[in-house]
Amino acid sequence: MSALATGGIVFAFVFGGAVLGLFLRSTLPDHHLSSESKDVVKLGMGLLATMAALVLSLLIASAKGSYDAQSSEITQLAANIALLDRILAHYGPETKDARDSLGRSVARAIDQMWPQSGPQAAELNPAATKAEGSYEKIQALSPQNEAQRSLRTEALKIAADIARTRSLLFAQTGSSIPLPFLMILVFWVAVIFVSFGLFAPLNATVIATLFVCALSVSGAIFLILELDQPFQGFIHVSSASLRTALTHLGR
Fold this sequence. Notes:
The chain is 75% helix and 0% strand. The chain contains 8 helices and no strands. It is rod-shaped and about 95 Å long. The protein starts with a helix and ends with a helix.
């Protein structure tokens, strides 16, 4: 399910809780809405609000950490690709095939990780780019002196690092947000909104306020889910570093 659809469901639950509270206000006997009852509800909702804030902060930290980690890995991937190309250039003209293969695999990776056509999902599987070809071409090089031997060893090490980073990105495609955390958080917030509606007067200002607050909560959940899937949706990791590296390959 997309982050937008999930955000819509969260909004329905939260605002629905507020509407339920307004309905209960008109049906409950007066002694249920006494000042003593109101004080007890306020204490309970204060406890729920504190727990909800803690869970929300954990979800935000988890989603932001996942986004930052994968963004950093893309930057590191671009740096390693550029460095590998320069090392191969220093090795000599016999690395032209390996450099061309590297450029093609990077271009395929960009097209698959940031697809331009329609709602196609990002492809992070390293096998899809056939990047092994450049590694095999580097391995097939025959160094003629100590300098070329050193450059070939370093090139193989960096090529392995690139493959390792791609595999790590692929391994991180799953969500870092536990579904039970999210479900409990939405339940708590819905209960809090029930209490808002329960003691609020029924007028346009109250309904508009509850609507905006419910929209804000669902927006926060939407942003968390967007950050948790950094290669999909509206908020995604930039491809600028890899595209910049690609433009300099083979020079």
